[in-house]
Amino acid sequence: MARAVWNGALTFGLVSLPVQLFTATDSHTIRFRQLQRGTADRVRNKRVNERTGEEVPPDEIVKGLDAGDAYVILEPQELEDIAPGRSRELEITGFVDLEDVEPIFFDRTYYMGPKGEQYEKVYAVLQKALERAGKVGIATFVMRNREYLVAVKAESGILTLHTLHWANEIRDPRAEIDELPGRVRLADRELKTAEQLIDALSMEWDPNDFHDTYHEKVQELVEAKKKGESVEKAEQPAEATNVIDLMDALRASVDRAKSKKGSTPRRKGGTSRKATTGRRTRARAETSLDSLTKAQLYDLAAEADVRGRSAMNREELVGALSRTGAQGRAKAS
């Protein structure tokens, strides 16, 4: 079982529910070691006294704020003592419609569980009530010497806690981006064609269709270097579309998207002569797939309606296509 990152009481009205928080997500970050070039010697970070150059043990390190002519020193226990509710209470101030909380405010997600079987009923009542009302509870609490604004939400039969950014942490986009468009005159035909493209590329959301391809590429690179081999370089990004070519690019995109959606699906029953011939030439077809670019492979995957194709690398596209009826088309092309 996972270890709770916070324990305390969730309160709403006069109801108090002891709860625990658990991390809901994992990170795919690849952690490299720092080495000195040309050696296998680790390079480590150390906490040192900048005046003496001597290393300082963790228990001798305190927090300090620069007050100009001196530092104000804060001990860990002092920070704990001033934390609201001594960091052990999560009080819901009120409930709001979920759709009223803009996505930009959401940060991290935690699973929330009752701290003990005797509190399961109270937990279930709040979860079900939030689910029926379509609302989230807004609260604040302190964890690891930091106060958080949070939303308590019911989803998939449990309670979750989403940390939110404070209002003054949200940057004004027009102050951050120099070249945001102002009043731009848009041609009606361009706008309608763009809407057609959006409609043609619409799909059902399935997060399992996507995965971290960069993480996989790094792992492939590591394995290749261990064997003294090299890996294929990634394709260069597409050139920016200029204003003159915009309409042509939109029309071509719509036609391409529609042709992919309208492609003939594979036969599910029966064994035709054509299907039998396709099986006989499978090996030669796979060789043909290996000769195609990633863009060509992706087009074939779209015609064959291969799920998850947008997140596949070149090798995965070849593997997926080799198991579909796309081999014959690849060979013919």
Write the layout of secondary structure elements.
Layout: E1 6-12, E2 15-23, E3 63-66, E4 71-74, H1 76-82, E5 89-97, E6 106-114, H2 120-133, E7 135-143, E8 146-155, E9 158-164, H3 173-176, H4 188-200, H5 213-226, H6 246-261, H7 273-280, H8 282-290, H9 294-303, H10 314-321, H11 326-332
Parallel strand pairs: 1-5
Antiparallel strand pairs: 1-2, 2-6, 3-4, 5-7, 6-9, 7-8, 8-9
Could you walk me through the main structural features you see in this protein, from its secondary elements to its overall organization?
The protein has 333 residues and is of the alpha+beta class. The protein is built from 11 helices and 9 strands. Helix 9 runs parallel beside helix 10. Mean pLDDT is 80; it is low at 264-287.
Mean pLDDT: 80
Quick one: CATH class of the domain at 6-25 and 81-169? Mainly Beta
The share of residues in extended strands comes to 15-25%
- The computed structural class is alpha+beta
Strand order, largest beta sheet: 1-2-6-9-8-7-5
The CATH architecture designation of the domain at 6-25 and 81-169 is Beta Barrel
User: Tally of extended strands?
Assistant: 9
The helix/strand order is: EEEEHEEHEEEHHHHHHHHH
The CATH topology of the domain at 6-25 and 81-169 turns out to be: Ku70, Chain: A, Domain 2
How many DSSP helices? Answer: 11
Distance between the termini: 53 Å
The helix content is 25-40%
The residue ranges in which pLDDT falls below 50 over 5 or more consecutive positions are 264-287
Major sheet: size, sense and barrel closure?
Answer: 7 strands, mixed, barrel
Indicate the overall shape.
Answer: extended
